[in-house]
């Protein structure tokens, strides 16, 4: 929450900021951080140079959560941000993001993912998501407290004085602060067609993978049901002919 506002704020202050894509080749931040850690490097080593990395996730993989300890140890002088807003408003935003009438939306996606602290199937209401986010906040605060070379900035993105607070902390004019990613279903009159195309592009990669996995699972279930309908004689004949489907092991004998 609030990543677009942070991104725009620091860019307005003439600092380099990335949002979703990192580096000159515009690789997804979620990928370059993961690849860096897999290579035994600090998470941002292969993500290009920037003053601010506003959004690292791609909507499916969240480096800021899954690689949090790697960030703490690999970038010992980093400043971490925790953003806040009323949880009911955040949940309402998740229910309408990406901005299309019939979904799927982020609240549904969260329930299918297996995020640290939020296992698959959890997150079906504002209470469950609130509990998860509070535990994430406590985790970040605890890690930063144990590694005092870091700085932790906590931002209420709906605080009327947040622009002035950001100016006091970073020396960037408060006029640079603004709400940059208002939900298009709730505030569609403020969205241009280009905005809509960019937001759909932003999540297309994750959604394509999700739909592909769902289709593969549906086909696998169909194959299992077909195998269950076969007689033992036909199954043996298939095995004899070298046609041993992977799903055969899941069929009850």
Describe the structure.
The protein is mainly alpha-helical and 253 residues long. The protein has helices spanning 3-12, 29-38, 63-66, 68-74, 87-95, 106-112, 126-146, 162-170, 193-229, 232-240; strands at residues 17-19, 21-22, 27-28, 52-55, 79-84, 151-156. It has 2 domains: 3-191, no CATH class; 192-253. It contains 10 helices and 6 strands; from the N terminus they run αβββαβααβαααβααα. The protein is elongated.
Name the strands of the widest sheet in spatial order. Answer: 1-4
Helix run count: 10
Specify the helix fraction band. 40-55%
Largest sheet: 2 strands, parallel
The 3D shape can be described as elongated
- Sheet/helix structural class: mainly alpha
Radius of gyration from CA coordinates:
22 Å
User: How far from one another are the termini?
Assistant: 50 Å
* Strand proportion: 5-15%
Q: How many beta strands in the DSSP annotation? A: 6
- The sequence of SSEs as H and E is HEEEHEHHEHHHEHHH
Overall pLDDT: 82
Number of self-contained structural domains: 2
* Weakly predicted, low-confidence segments: 184-199, 249-253
Structural features:
single chain; 253 residues; mainly alpha; 2 domains; two-stranded parallel ribbon; two-stranded antiparallel sheet; 49% helix; disordered C terminus
List the helices and strands and how they pair.
Elements: H1 3-12, E1 17-19, E2 21-22, E3 27-28, H2 29-38, E4 52-55, H3 63-66, H4 68-74, E5 79-84, H5 87-95, H6 106-112, H7 126-146, E6 151-156, H8 162-170, H9 193-229, H10 232-240
Parallel strand pairs: 1-4, 5-6
Antiparallel strand pairs: 2-3
């Amino acid at each position: 929450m609030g990543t677009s506002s942070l991104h725009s704020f620091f860019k307005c202050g003439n600092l380099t900021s990335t949002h979703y894509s990192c580096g000159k080749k515009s690789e997804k931040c979620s990928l370059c951080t993961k690849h860096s850690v897999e290579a035994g490097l600090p998470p941002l080593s292969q993500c290009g140079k920037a003053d601010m990395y506003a959004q690292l996730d791609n909507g499916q993989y969240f480096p800021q959560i899954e690689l949090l300890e790697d960030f703490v140890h690999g970038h010992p002088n980093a400043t971490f941000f925790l953003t806040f807003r009323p949880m009911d408003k955040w949940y309402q935003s998740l229910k309408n993001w990406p901005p299309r009438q019939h979904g799927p939306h982020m609240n549904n996606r969260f329930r299918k993912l297996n995020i640290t602290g939020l296992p698959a199937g959890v997150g079906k209401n504002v209470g469950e998501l609130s509990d998860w986010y509070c535990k994430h906040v406590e985790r970040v605060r605890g890690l930063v407290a144990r590694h005092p070379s870091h700085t932790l900035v906590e931002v209420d993105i709906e605080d009327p004085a947040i622009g002035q607070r950001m100016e006091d902390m970073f020396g960037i004019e408060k006029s640079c602060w603004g709400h940059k990613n208002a939900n298009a279903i709730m505030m569609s009159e403020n969205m241009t067609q280009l905005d809509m195309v960019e937001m759909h592009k932003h999540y297309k990669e994750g959604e394509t993978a999700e739909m592909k996995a769902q289709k593969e699972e549906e086909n696998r279930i169909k194959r299992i049901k077909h195998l269950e309908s076969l007689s033992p004689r036909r199954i043996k004949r298939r095995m004899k002919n070298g046609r041993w489907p992977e799903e055969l092991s899941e069929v009850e004998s």
